[in-house]
TrEMBL record:
Residue stretches making up the CxC6 like cysteine cluster associated with KDZ domain: 9-72
InterPro entries per record: CxC6 (IPR040898)
Origin organism lineage: Eukaryota, Fungi, Dikarya, Basidiomycota, Agaricomycotina
The protein's name: CxC6 like cysteine cluster associated with KDZ domain-containing protein
Amino acid sequence: IVKLQSAHCDGDTIGHRCCKAHDCKTPLPSHRRHFCPDHAHLTLKCAVVECPADVAAAHRTCSDPAHRALETAYFSRGKALFQLRSRL
């Protein structure tokens, strides 16, 4: 019998995937999930920490323009044009 453990590497740290809720030790149901079953309801809340509003459809933030701007800036970093502009 062999023991096998998986680890997650994001380029900065190596470790086991864990729930995004602060100090939660409950294991995730799968590696694609960000919250454990106890905190699954947080998937429907705005990604901005202090915001209690629900997310808008197809977004990770609520409909507040300031929060939407944060989300847009976060995802623009992965775009090729953003990388090209930073090099020029």
